Amino acid sequence: MGGSRHRSKPRLGIVELAVDPADVDRDRYPVRIRLTRPLTPFEMDGLAVAEPGMHVEGDALVVPDARLDDIAHDRREWAGRLERVESLAGEREGESMVADHRRVEEQTRHGSHLGSQHEHDRGLH
C-alpha cells in the first residue's frame, strides 16, 4: 500500500449532534453536526454553495442558528444535504481535474514553442 493515496473516501455521515450546554437555555443556538470525516476542500466549496451561513470546525458542521431537537428530527434531511454537498464537490473536483489536464496540455503544446516565439517577438520590437 505504501504512499499511494486512496481515492475512495468514506461517505459523509452524521456521527453525533452536539451543543454547548450553556446555549440550550436560549431559543436558538449553534448546533455542531459531527461528521464521519472532515470535509475535503471541494466539499467545503460545495457547502458554501449548498448551505450558506454554515461553517466548518474540524470534522463538524456548525449550524449557527438552530435547535438540537429540530436537527435531530430532520436527520434524514441533513443526510440528503450532505449528499448534495458531496455531489457538488464531485462535480467541482471533476471540473478542476479537466481544467488542470487542459492547462498541462496547453503548457506542453506551447512550451516547446516558447523559445522560438520569444526570439521571434524580440525581432519585431
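[next item in queue]
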Amino acid sequence: MRSAFFGEPAARVVPGGTHITVYLVPVHDGRLTVFDVAAREARGRWLPWDVLDWSANPYECASALADHWCDVSLADLALVDVMSLRVEGGGWELAIIFRGELMEPARGDDARVPFTFPAGQYDAIGPFDPVDLERWVTRAPAPGPPQRPPQAKANDGRGLLF
C-alpha cells in the first residue's frame, strides 16, 4: 500500500500525480442543472468544477464556481461528498463535492449552456453515476453498512430495556 504524499504544486495535471478538485452540483427547484460545454478540450456535459488552488478553501472555490459557471446567487451551499477517483495515466483525484441551491435558473455563456433535467431524472455526468447525483440533489443519506436492530437487555422487572 502506498501513502498519499504531495509534492510541489504544479500548473497542470501530471501523469501519475495527484490533484484535488471541487465540484458543484447546482440545483434549482429540486432539479439538477448541468452544462453543455463547447470547448474542444472539454466538450460534453459537465458539472461546474475546478482544480483547487494550493492551500485554497474548498467552500470559497465552490462559491466561485457558482458565480463563474451559473452566474446566479446561492441560497445554500453544502458539502455532500468526497470521492477518490482514478485519473487516466495513473493519477489520482480527490474530489470534494458541494451541492449549491440556486436562487434562480443558471445562466449560460458562449462556452457553457445550462441544461436542467426534469424532476427526478438523472444521467451519468463526468465521473459520477446517476445514483450519486440523485443522492446529492435530494440530500439522501449516503449508503452505509446495514444497521442491526438493538439487542434486548435483561429484564430487571421494569420491562425490556434496549
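[queue empty]
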